[in-house]
User: Which sequence fits this backbone?
């Protein structure tokens, strides 16, 4: 959802656990299975984004960088599992959007980018799927970091999907 300090601490813990950049040791991967779909991400500069999955994350997902500046996504599989497959893929796409948007990165832009890329890639194909956002994001609060309150957020996502 966002980059915040509490979560950055979790991320550094993950990075510290890996003295060498070996995928099997640090748990990072270049793609992740989200609701049955193998997903990967590149940042604005074309750099592949490494992905970590941990239930220790205090969020559904975050996009941040390691101390070396490498772009990473961290996902909490337990929180992800509370959402439908469509919304799970969108959470991943949202976090990827934070990296892919570069200078245009913002919470609302990442929301929009995520749903547009899903439509382009065939993950979004029905109006009913947009209804899932209205239900599943309904109780999310807005934030000072730019998250719209859930109902407005779902409405903006639907608008992006259809424009
Ligand atoms: Zn976000």
Assistant:
């Amino acid at each position: 959802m966002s980059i915040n300090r509490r979560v950055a601490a979790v991320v550094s813990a993950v990075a510290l656990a890996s003295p060498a950049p070996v995928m099997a040791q640090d748990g990072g991967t270049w793609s992740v299975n989200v609701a049955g779909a193998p997903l990967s991400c590149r940042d604005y500069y074309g750099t592949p984004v490494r992905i970590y999955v941990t239930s220790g994350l205090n969020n559904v997902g975050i996009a941040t960088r390691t101390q070396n500046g490498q772009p990473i996504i961290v996902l909490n599989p337990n929180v992800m599992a509370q959402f439908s497959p469509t919304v799970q893929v969108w959470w991943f796409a949202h976090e990827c959007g934070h990296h892919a948007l570069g200078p245009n990165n913002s919470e609302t832009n990442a929301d929009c980018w995520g749903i547009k890329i899903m439509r382009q890639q065939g993950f979004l194909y029905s109006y009913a799927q947009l209804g899932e956002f209205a239900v599943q994001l309904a109780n999310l609060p807005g934030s000072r970091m730019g998250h719209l309150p859930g109902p407005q957020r779902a409405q903006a996502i639907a608008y992006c999907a259809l424009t």
About this structure: The first helix runs from residue 5 to 16. Helices lie at 5-16, 23-26, 77-80, 85-100, 107-120, 127-136, 150-162. Residues 5-162 form one domain.
